[in-house]
Amino acid sequence: MEEKDGHYVPGQMLSANMMGSKAKHSEFQYFVVDELSRKMVIPNGCMGHRWTRKEKWNLKMENSETGEAISPVLTLDGRGDGIVTVALPHFGHLDGMKTIERAVPVKEIDTPDGSLYVTTVYDLMMANYGIDRGFGGVAAKDFTDDTPYTPAWQEKYTGVNPELVIHTAREFADNAIATGGRSMIIMGGGINHWFHADVIYRAVLNLVLFCACEGKNGGGWAHYVGQEKLRPAEGWGAIMSAKDWQAAPRLQNSTSFFYFATDQWRSDEMDASDLTSPLVTPRYRHAADYNVLAARLGWLPSYPTFNKGGAAIMKEAEAAGNKDFDSVKAYVARQLKEKKLHFAIEDPDAKENIPRNLIVWRANLITSSSKGHEYFMKYLLGTKNGLLEENDAHPTEVKWRDDVPSGKLDLLVDLDFRMAGSALYSDIVLPTATWYEKTDLSSTDMHPFVHPFQPAVDPGWESKTDWDIFLTLGKAVEKVAKEAELPVYRDIVAVPLQHDSEGETAQPHGKVRDWSRGECEPIPGKTMPNLVYIERDYTKIFEKQRALGPNLENGTVGAHGITAHIGDQYEELKQRNGIIGDAQAPGYGCPTIENCYDACQAVLTLSSATNGKVALKSWQTAEKATGLTGLTEGLDGRAGEQITFEDIVAQPRQVISTPVFTGNGKGGRRYTPFTNNIEFLMPFRTITGRQSFFLDHEIMNEWGEQMATFKPVLDYAPMKEGLPNDGTPEITLKYLTPHSKWSIHSMYFDTQQMLTLFRGGQTVWLNEDDAADIGVKDNDWIEMYNRNGVVASRAVVTPRIPRGQVYMYHAQDRHINVPGSKLSKTRGGTHNTPTRIHMKPTHMIGGYGQLSYGFNYYGPTGNQRDVLVVVRKMKEVDWLED
Predict the structure, then answer these.
(1) What 3-state class would DSSP assign to 807?
(2) DSSP label at 834?
(3) Cα dist from 495 to 289, 291, 572, whole Å
């Protein structure tokens, strides 16, 4: 507990180094109070053990120093040295208070830096929730008190009857007790579309953790949101990232990329000071500044990374006398510190930093995914757009340019099997095969089977499979490179601090240390991105594409920090797939993956979920990584089993249990996440090694989210200044974009069958009373707008939509039955026209345990639902046919 302005606030997790330890990574070893010894002890399983004393990285209930059994207590109530009042941030805008004060029991301890008070995370949580524990403070005495966060209090924010809340909560908990944890919360991706998605997730997780439901079949947090992760992860990852030939692919979270590439940062109305803790002064007020910080400190990837290309930096470094790559890395760090080299994200509109070419692969980026659609139209494509109003939102870390380029892309290539929005706006469309015209694999981390795709017919006309298209592109690039006699490109790749690597210990105590402010030195892989040397030979790119590269011959594959040597499997693939026989080719003697079938076989052979031998090696690695024995029993006798493509063609096959995924199918049980952690005592990959309720990172503290709390949706006006109005009635509503009913897998509706199932074009759904207020009847044409653009659509008037909200089902392409708008002077937009990207800084934290970057794992969400729109009836419908 830290004393601040006359009261106490939650500080850092108490760690071994705060108590005087000098051991490596003692900053990531944490204490519990042991009931048996009546002492504070460090239990097994902390993240610091993972990188120093692997034999202690497990969840055995032991004192990590002595090996003695321990029994941690939840609370200091009755065991401490008194009660103090703690101030906690509060964001309930209807309550008229910025903070709440609650009582917590504390224990006074002596440290090398003096005495201080500590409390337990449990005690803090009970205080935050407002539980009356009988020792004073201002916590609620009764569920009927209108005090944060009682059932009575929540009604004014949610409209849910308090008795229903109490009834549901008790049933959930009673069922968990009666069934041994089989209470489940099923949730989809909808939460991710809200700005405060992370804190909502944590609130939901708290419910299942309080009731001991996680890792129990029939219980826990059931998250369903499409294709999260592929089951045969290791083989796919090695091929997808080209690690079979060279390391360090450039993989970036798309939210950050498009936020800057489409210049949404320039008009971002969000002010961090409106949303951060009243107890802390925010480091920045603009979200773009936090993303610059994240790129600079190696928290998030950002490409292009620097304002100079990798080859140019290498030449400059060598000309300055740096002969090896370690000295080149030191040279780059000095250049950054002296401001002679800059991160590209600091000047995203400079001509050397803007994107020029973009290949869209099997994604309707321009219609379905382009949050802030009209910004994409203007800044990325340079075509007609419906932007109504742009702010001048000046960050402090980003260079402001008045002459912003529109139409940044020189070339847009789209791979798709239909003429959706992305294809219509592309320079080149490469028609690709559908599911029934190709050989491929289908799996997710939520379903325990691997399924095949097989071609019922060959790809039609000029279309090819995705695999063949990229091989064709590679062959064309190789041909041009040879004709131009391109030299080997000597590149520097900046890699973020990765989860499941020692880089996740880069921010001790969650303290932000920014070398650009002189708070530390720029050290690659520690206080800034790691730097990796890569050689790229474009005269050999196709030859490398079609061969499974030599890095795997005596190498490893892995995921989540669990690796396995796959030399035997590499040799097996030579026999199964055949080898590259051209003695002049760089892949000579390597297994071939020149066709889809061979690539699928390689993925299945190299992955622990589909190859029992690889799974056995992975479990053995897990035993060494945790000091646990008997983990290989999780294989359930399937070590000799190998799933081939022929096997899944005959019948979809249940995957083999592997430590790469946290669920276990031993004994034929259905897949449930976290059973390996709960039953096998493998640590959760968090700073404490346990399920987490409290996050002490500085940015979390800044945003008032050390614990799960209530935060309202963003509430920024639809327009900074109202548009001229001729008296047409208008209404302001909250805007939502749920999955469509009348489309194929919620993705596209532009087929005759889908269009004839409902209204045959774009529709917007209104509550009947809201519609009546502005004179709109069912099937009338309406305009829906805010600063981001205008939708022109027909209205569906219904009592099923709650008052105050308006729905527009997503992925409705704008090229079908969409008239013009008088407001934008162009054709109406898509479901993403009223939206924009809102970047949340708590999603950008890195180098800190579970808050560390991983591909398709962690980073800013593309949330777009915290917006308001104005709806009004159209006086006339102009189809722009002139």
Answers:
(1) strand
(2) T
(3) 20, 15, 32
DSSP string computed for 336-398: HHTTSS-BGGGSTTSTTTS--EEEEES--IIIII-SSHHHIIIIII-S------------SSS
pTM, two decimals, is 0.97
Q: Which one-letter amino acid corresponds to residue 394? A: H
Provide the β-strand partners of residue 781. 794
- pLDDT tens for residues 630-683? 999 999 999 999 999 999 999 999 999 999 999 998 888 888 889 999 999 999
pLDDT band of 139, cuts 50, 70, 90: low
How far is residue 348's CA from residue 346's CA, in Å, rounded to a whole number?
Answer: 6
CA proximity to 870, closest of 388, 418, 484, 522: 388
- Which helix H or strand E contains 597, and what residues bound it? helix 596-605
Helices of type H across 681-817: 698-702, 752-757, 768-773
Taking residue 741's Cβ as centre, other Cβ atoms within 10 Å add up to 11
Backbone angles phi, psi at 111, to 5 degrees: -125, 165
Q: CB–CB of 865/855 below 8 Å?
A: no
**Within 10 A of 147 (CB to CB), how many other CB atoms are there?**
18
d(C-alpha 707, C-alpha 10), whole Å: 10
pLDDT digit string (tens) for 243-264? 999 989 999 999 999 999 999 9
Is residue 823's pLDDT more than 90?
Answer: yes
User: Which residues of 201-325 form beta strands (DSSP E)?
Assistant: 220-223
539-562: per-residue pLDDT in tens?
A: 999 999 999 999 999 999 999 999
Q: In a 10 Å sphere around its CB, with 0-12 CB exposed, 13-18 middle and 19+ buried, how is residue 286 labelled?
A: buried
Distance between CA 91 and CA 540 in Å, rounded?
57
Q: Are the CB atoms for 574 and 526 separated by under 8 Å?
A: no
Cα 101-104-108 angle, rounded to 5 deg: 125
Rounded Cα gap, residues 213 and 438, in angstroms: 41
CA torsion sign, 604 to 605 to 606 to 612? Answer: positive
Four-CA torsion 434, 437, 441, 442, nearest 10 degrees: 40
In a 3-state reduction of DSSP, which class is residue 109? strand
What is the DSSP pairing of strand 530-536 with strand 411-416?
A: unpaired
Pull the structure tokens for residue 791. 């939708």
